[in-house]
Amino acid sequence: MFHFNYKQALLTAKLASKEDGNYLGVYRNYAPMQMFLALAETDSPEAYIHPVLDQIRQYDHLHKTEYYKTLRLFCLTMQNKDSTSIQLAIHRNTLLYRLNRMRDLFNVTYEDEQTALHLLVSFLLIDIMERFS
Known about the structure:
- This protein is mainly alpha-helical and 133 residues long.
- Helix content is 68%, strand content 3%.
- The chain has two domains: 30 residues, no CATH class; 86 residues, Orthogonal Bundle (Arc Repressor Mutant, subunit A).
- A two-stranded antiparallel ribbon has the order 1-2.
């Protein structure tokens, strides 16, 4: 049991960061991120990231849209449309428009459970990679 608690504390220390002036260091805040930290420390963590995300980032850059940010938050809220629209400070219909537009532009089927999981894992892995780059 001691070894397990030590690993939890070590991983929490690695993942703890300063957000909004507050230091976060509680294990429960980072528990699921252990897997993604391990993946991020491999030779090619990019292999686990959904390929559509790079396409969306490039499109956003060229067209000054916020599809990547929208999809990221939509995935992180577990596809809760109300929560996503509130956090983005946009009307729910704007969110629905963006989601439909992404489906049309990038053929991303976020409603599919496997795709939704792959997107969520991708965003969590990207967050870890950016934190440690």
